[in-house]
Amino acid sequence: MTNKASSSIQILLVKWQTSGLALLLFLLACWQFLGAVDNRPMHRDEARWIHRATYVREILHPLGDYWDESTWIERGGTLDERYRLRAQPPMGSYVMGIGFLLQGKPLPDIGFWNMDQDDAWNAANGNQPSHAEVLTARRTSAVVGAITVVAIFLVANRLTNAIGGVVAGLMLTFNPLMEHLATFAGSDAVLALTIALTAVAAYRFADKPTWPRAILLGILPGLGASTKLSPLGITIPLALLGILAIGYRLLHHRLSPTRLPAPPPLRAGIQLLTTPVVALLTLIISYPYLWQNPIQHIRNLIDYRQWGMEIQSTLWQQIAVDSRTDALRRVGIRLGDEWTILSRLGWTWFPTGTELAIACAGLVILLWLVIRHGLWSAHALAAAVLTSETAITIYGLNADWARYHLPILLLTTTCIGVACGSAWGGVTRLFPGAGDGPRVHADIVDFHETIEGIEDHPRTHQPEASAP
């Protein structure tokens, strides 16, 4: 058997291994999340998300009165009822409605939950969903959460190896914050999915820059912005990397080309530069409310969101965040003590913050991998997505609700996977027979990328060093 044929078989085996692990993690996450959808009573926020599931029907009439804010203002009601279109972007509601339809259920026909009234009043006025509707909505979030687990597995697997991917997937699956939000009828699970898929799209673009992959890299944060506005900011570092790539490519020959790393293709820089435009267009196209006056209505969304944060921090002083230092402190408490697998298991003999400490070590390793592989590598682009969303979340954290920490959890679980995958890589180098599977996996991935790169750039491509 020739070396090429043998390598092709090995590549196929690795793909089957990755697919098999992804499927197992998906089934495990579904078992974990779906089994917990009926573990607590309905929250009033869930009633509103279930009510908005009808968005998926109204999107078929994008020019109708439903998407005209004056319709709701003239109808009257509470402030948030009149300004419902600027209160929440629509993607979470679309997914909720699709979840109902895929489960063979009719779209809910309930009113808008009035937060100024109690449960009995809302139930009497037709605003309370049935128990079956709540479970249908939560099952939708559960499946979305399971797909997110698979995406984080793929990211950590690409950054290190299969061990790192599996650890990251397991840490996310069994984290109590993830379970809580993956069994909650809302949009937080959808937000997490769009961020995780953007990280997958980022490393795939870095592996092989093409226009379809670049467009997808812009569409996914656009869908995230259509869920919660913050993922729009993910495209800023991506565009900056594009500008750097173009500048480095143009100036490379004037510097010391024999001593510096080869620049990325010029088209890769241009493609990265388009991601904010594609994301913004995706947000606008996905939300008919924005069509009449996109810039002003996006500002309405942002202003309403900021106003809502201020109101929350005023009404609930215990969750008010005083500064960015206080925000970091609260992240440490939430993800280092309260929302951890160790606390869930009751293993109190581990020091507080153990999981967060491992994640910080993994973040340092990830930064080293970025330096090692380059600013336009899979490691750099995936890290840019996850760290920028984390930075945006911390910067904008004015009310310390647990759900706001979910994007940060995606980074911490990925970094724990990076730490464990790198540690496993070190073991396999010290004891080569201890981990043939993961070690061979890394070598095969690099060989496969080398072959693709030679086909694209037959004279200039240099194979990337193997990941640890």
Short description:
The protein has helices spanning 3-34, 44-51, 55-58, 69-75, 79-82, 84-87, 91-102, 119-124, 131-159, 162-174, 176-182, 188-207, 211-225, 235-251, 266-273, 275-286, 294-315, 324-338, 341-345, 354-373, 378-395, 406-430, 436-456. With 468 residues, the chain is an all-alpha fold.
What does this structure look like?
- It is a single chain.
- The chain is 69% helix and 0% strand.
- It has 468 residues and is mostly helical.
- The chain has one domain (3-456).
- It is globular.
Secondary-structure map:
Elements: H1 3-34, H2 44-51, H3 55-58, H4 69-75, H5 79-82, H6 84-87, H7 91-102, H8 119-124, H9 131-159, H10 162-174, H11 176-182, H12 188-207, H13 211-225, H14 235-251, H15 266-273, H16 275-286, H17 294-315, H18 324-338, H19 341-345, H20 354-373, H21 378-395, H22 406-430, H23 436-456
Helix pairs in contact: 1-9, 1-10, 1-23, 7-9, 9-10, 9-11, 9-12, 9-22, 10-22, 12-13, 12-21, 13-16, 14-15, 18-20, 20-21, 20-22, 21-22
**What Rg, in angstroms, do the CA atoms define?**
23 Å
Helix content estimate? 55-70%
Number of helical runs?
A: 23
Extract low-pLDDT stretches.
438-468
SS-based class: mainly alpha
One letter per element, helices H and strands E, the order comes to HHHHHHHHHHHHHHHHHHHHHHH
